[in-house]
Design a protein that fits this description.
With about 325 residues, the chain is an alpha/beta fold. The chain has 14 helices and 13 strands.
């Protein structure tokens, strides 16, 4: 009897030890994804990477937003959400802002909704992004949400400026401060430059970088331009996926060796953390009215930008593998 008791106690101790040592980093990161998805197509790769990380249990996708008024941005987002078995993820769009067109000869952004299932017919038909942001944020635990933006700052500036409503008694700035853990963005060029996502809506960019109340992590132009992805995806035996379709159409027009992958880096860092792959410089991003940015070092600053630590080739392989991820049967 004593032997049995001792054995039982030993087993309980082992079970307790195993569970107490479980990797708490596997708790899914709640993410709101904000994208311009057109005319560029690394956004398609970025949302694909996010779904792959959601399927692995590393992320939970709360909402997906179009940051521009291009008619096909919303439908393309919806296509990818449907493809990965998450058709009910909310899609939001701005009520006013930047309108872009697909600059490629073969219209990839029109091709995706024409080929793959979706329910949203045009970006303008999506729900108001600010309404979605407020509703989703209000429902989350405090200091839990990571917002990953790989487009313009139109929605985020409007969120900050939004008043209290029947969803939350907090104004937008206070709601963000209460609920958002990190803002992770593909934006800027460091230590200074003039980058597309910042200058296309420079007014909104200034609002966000002057007033955003939670920590900001920035993947600058100089990071993504060294990471060329898509070549392996296009050559793979992966059945036609939205990402494979977009990259197949576009790489032959751009560079068959691969597409610079700015947006995927923001998703990778937003879910897995910067320290796993990159070093960071802390300080303040300063935006000008012409959309250019500069930087002021400050060890106590709320902003950080990425600097190289892991070789670009290793990051490329990680992103390429995630972009080839296939849907998991739910």
């Amino acid at each position: 009897m004593n032997k049995i008791s001792f054995k039982s106690i030993s087993i309980l101790i082992i079970i307790f030890f195993v569970y107490s040592c479980k990797d708490v980093s596997r708790v899914p990161v709640p993410v709101i994804f904000d994208t311009d998805m057109g005319p560029d197509y690394d956004d398609v790769g970025a949302l694909t990477v996010l779904h792959a990380l959601a399927d692995s249990g590393e992320a939970k996708i709360l909402a997906t937003m179009s940051s521009n008024m291009y008619a096909y941005t919303g439908p393309c987002i919806d296509v990818i959400n449907h493809y990965y078995g998450r058709p009910d993820i909310p899609v939001g769009s701005p009520r006013k802002g930047v309108t872009l067109e697909d600059v490629h000869k073969e219209k990839w952004a029109e091709a995706l909704p024409a080929k793959f299932p979706h329910k949203l017919n045009a970006t303008k038909d999506a729900e108001d992004a600010v309404v979605v942001y407020r509703r989703v944020l209000a429902a989350q635990p405090d200091t839990s949400v990571t917002i990953i933006t790989v487009g313009f700052f139109t929605n985020l500036a409007a969120l900050l400026q939004s008043p209290a409503d029947n969803v939350s008694g907090l104004n937008g700035t206070d709601l963000v401060k209460k609920k958002v853990k990190y803002l992770v963005s593909m934006a800027g060029s460091f230590p200074k430059g003039r980058e597309f996502n910042v200058f296309c809506d420079s007014v909104a960019s200034q609002v966000v970088f002057d007033k955003w109340p939670s920590p900001v992590v920035l993947s600058g132009f100089e990071i993504g331009k060294e990471i060329l992805t898509g070549k392996d995806l296009v050559a793979s035996n992966v059945p036609n996926s939205p990402a494979k379709e977009a990259f197949t159409i576009c790489l032959k027009q751009d560079d068959p060796a691969g597409r610079m992958s700015w947006d995927q880096t923001a998703v990778l860092v937003g879910v897995r953390g910067a320290d796993k792959y990159f070093g960071t410089v802390r300080g303040h991003m300063i935006t000008s009215s012409d959309g250019s940015n500069s930087w002021r070092d400050d060890p106590a600053g709320m902003h950080q930008y990425l600097v190289w630590k892991t070789p670009a080739g290793q990051i490329t392989k990680i992103i390429e593998d995630l972009m080839m991820h296939q849907p998991v049967k739910k």
